[in-house]
Amino acid sequence: MVENLMQEFMNVFQTTDEQLRAFFAPGRVNLIGEHTDYNGGHVFPCALSIGTYAIAKKRNDDTVRMYSMNFKNLDVITFSIKHLAYEQQHGWANYPKGVMDMFQKNGHKLESGFDVLFYGNIPNGAGLSSSASIELATSVVVNGLFDLGIDMISMVQMSQQAENEFIGVNCGIMDQFAIGMGKEQHAILLDCQTLQYTYSPIAMEGASLVIANTNKQRGLADSKYNERRGECERALKDLQQELTIASLGELSPELFEQYKYLIQNETDRKRAKHAIYENARTKEAVRCLQANDLIGLGQLMKQSHESLRDDYEVTGKELDALAEAAWAQEGTIGSRMTGAGFGGCTISIVQNDKIDSFIEQTGKIYTEQTGLTADFYVVQVGGGARELTFVR
């Protein structure tokens, strides 16, 4: 893979392979804990073996040239390191530009421009965090090329800052954290309020993770994501009339039931209920995994999807059809939507000897109900964003 990408780099930028360096940032999937990150709760994501590759080389001037093999129609995008502004016509390249801008605003000087070729094997718009993956790929590129010595959590925070402030999407920190801090064969229990985290081994004897893409495209910035954040913020404000809390994640389901009358708006109350109960489910899911209780984990995944459907209302007919078809299959241990919703993917735990029939039957039912064709991926849990070593 890396050798082919280096050859493509040399063809695109008309250069030699001297001083070329290779980097990688994975995609991520969240096992459980959806829409809890910006509510100060817990999430339980893992990094994947698929992601974003970047081949880069420093320049001797202020010019930055970027090329994506996923968006060849946009050709090479060129700009100055001294002029990092959001430009709609630059499309995908605004994500790397935003990261570079945040590096500099946080006091990390980029001494020159560079050329970079990106290639991602994450399905775009699928909800596996292709945007955060390219942000962290850019972070490790810039950190490596200019020998800045920045720790990974700082790069995670600047990548999130880029998406919030430069792109204008009010995302939480989960995606960037999982991609930057991922560890092979482990999921991360992350407290999004404190950034305290623990790694939990994923030992699924006789079962695998299967991601199913609805192929219903949706842009996070155009979705109702920011609207949901606003509803949760209003609910929190109502609860703060009597409770000294900084986030919904501080409440147990029992306390919520006791004080939910404070939330005036019924819709806001439903949104808060999801965030609080989902946080409790996430912590319980970790205990299930540690006890090798996959059945218990699967039940929590189903409850998570139902809450996202009924209380948070971010699923839609495509995700519901895919999850419900998965629940009906022999060999399915658990299945739920993953990501922001409004399209994207489901994540399922499926017995290995039933994976082929699971994919065939779930896909068939999904097509019958929606007219769309789902794509399925049996995925491995991989490591975090890093520079790749290679032999020429």
Automatic annotation (TrEMBL):
Keywords: ATP-binding, Carbohydrate metabolism, Cytoplasm, Galactose metabolism, Kinase, Magnesium, Metal-binding, Nucleotide-binding, Transferase
Domain GHMP kinase N-terminal: 94-183
Function: Catalyzes the transfer of the gamma-phosphate of ATP to D-galactose to form alpha-D-galactose-1-phosphate (Gal-1-P).
Reaction equation(s) it catalyzes: alpha-D-galactose + ATP = alpha-D-galactose 1-phosphate + ADP + H(+)
Organism whose genome encodes this protein: Ectobacillus funiculus
Protein name: Galactokinase
Family to which the UniProt record says this protein belongs: Belongs to the GHMP kinase family. GalK subfamily.
Active site feature: 175
InterPro entries documented for this protein: Galactokinase, Galactokinase_bac, Galactokinase_CS, GalKase_N, GHMP_kinase_C_dom, GHMP_kinase_C_sf, GHMP_kinase_N_dom, GHMP_knse_ATP-bd_CS
Record carries keyword Magnesium: yes
Residues binding substrate, per UniProt: 34-37, 225
